[in-house]
Amino acid sequence: MPHAIVETETPIIALDNKDIFFSKKSPFFIMPVSTRCEDFIIRAYQKDGRIIIKLDKTTYPLVTDDVKRSILDFAELLAESLNGKVIHHNLKETGKDCTVLKSYLLDVREINKRGINDLLGSDRIRVEVGIGKGEFLLKAAKSNPNITFVGIEIANEPLSKAVMRFYKEGLNNVKIVKYDARYVFDLFEVNSVERVYVNFPEPWFKFKKLKHALLNVDTLKKIERVLKKGGRIELLTDNLAYAVSVVTALETQTALKNAQERCIDVFRGNIDTYFERRWRRKKRTIYSVIYEKQNKSVSVERKNVNFPLKIRQNYVLESGFIFKILDIFENSSDQRIVEITFGRSVNPQHSYFGITNSDELFLIPQSIFVADEDALKSLELATI
Ligand SMILES: C[S@@+](CC[C@H](N)C(=O)[O-])C[C@H]1O[C@@H](n2cnc3c(N)ncnc32)[C@H](O)[C@@H]1O
User: Is residue 377 helix, strand or coil?
Assistant: First the structure.
């Protein structure tokens, strides 16, 4: 995580800067930033003569030089204004042009407005979840130029590598959504995706956290809805228990049907990705789960949300949905930003909004979230 540390004995509260918003109930302060490629939040706190300044990862920026420079600029500004010095940072620039990286990314705010299918303008769509360094997606997209591939990936490091690879190959049938895949499937049209590939999703997976897993029951149901008739979800994993949990959910909670001889088969092919090579070296067995959709799902019109929204209650926990104002940040002009968690209570999203004195939520450039059905439902419960 990109960060910097400033050493100073002067309290930050002494600083009069309208771009800095102080929490009303925690030691944190934040600064919303917009560079030419990204809109994000820098989050910091002061303790024991130090200010720790970090990128707020819930705003999901791709960590480009612009982002690193903004964090360092902020650290230097604090150091200068508070008679301190920057004593540590990991913000070395890499020289990668953010406009190249961004050219492959679908902006979640655009996705919320128009839906993914409309942005892609293709009726042949395949999705890979957790693309890592993009090896599988690169080969798939190169050998199927008439199909549009969407990669969903949450992690910065592998994603930047993947995108640079796509750029070097001149691929123009790949788009990336940088967000947690558990929320993204609602933004595809129902019955519109040919395949969903998931290769070695969560090697660190803990079974007591099943409901938080990427391929939990909710995500699998969402995937079922977006698959075309005859469309498939294809999972590869070295973790037999993970395969069992996915098959159990597919068999009991969806109408998808096994498309191989066995529900869980041994995978004897070769997709040659970083994680496949790793597990093969360790002589681990690789399992394949392939399920197919037999019948179309009923189409539903995608709803959207219109800001500003007047807040009725600061905290709602109802029918498995949550809406909670976690923190309120205020600048020296009494302008306010709220940090909210919202959506399904087991796996809520987290974002920042502006808020008026009469409690109306409005979007700021750093309001990064996916307007999935759960998010819409919880916003509906908490607002008028
Ligand atoms: C073990 S790696 C596998 C990468 C690649 N598929 C391969 O075979 O080498 C798992 C990848 O899934 C991504 N991932 C895990 N959970 C995710 C989520 N909820 N949404 C999007 N990506 C996720 C991780 O960031 C990571 O890049």
Answer: helix
